[in-house]
Amino acid sequence: MHAKPRPSASPAQALSAMDHLIATSMVGQQEIAAQVGLNVTDLTCFAYVLEAGENLLTAGDLAARAHVTTGAVTGILNRLERAGYVTRRPDPTDRRRVRVAAVPDAEARIREIYEPYYARLMNLFADYSPAEIAVLTDWFTRASTLAADYLEEYCRAD
Length: 158
Description:
Strand content: 5-15%
Strand order of the largest sheet: 1-3-2
Number of helices: 6
Structural class: mainly alpha
Largest sheet: 3 strands, antiparallel
């Protein structure tokens, strides 16, 4: 695919477009969470569990990723477990820890909601050249790192 001509944009316009995407995504997450009977934090934590796949997260891993305390993550896991989204498994290397696994039926329900959206995003990516996709991927990766570093520096959960 060859790159399509793109209108010029300033960094301020790009920042505004990003802010709009983030705001729309946040509203969408709230709507989806309500639809599946979760709150946004619990849905986000479930997404981290799904992202980890077979490399099951510990409760501590999940707390760090979600920027919540270990006490708060216990409540999150209790709610997710009661709602049928996760199970806790003993850590085979440390009996004091548990690992968190997604329940397959719950994973399927969430994928059913997100897959049509991801398909639309993949169609959008098809409008970009491989070089543009590389720039987008670099930017998303670097912006994610910057955001995580900022959260760690200014918004640390104690």
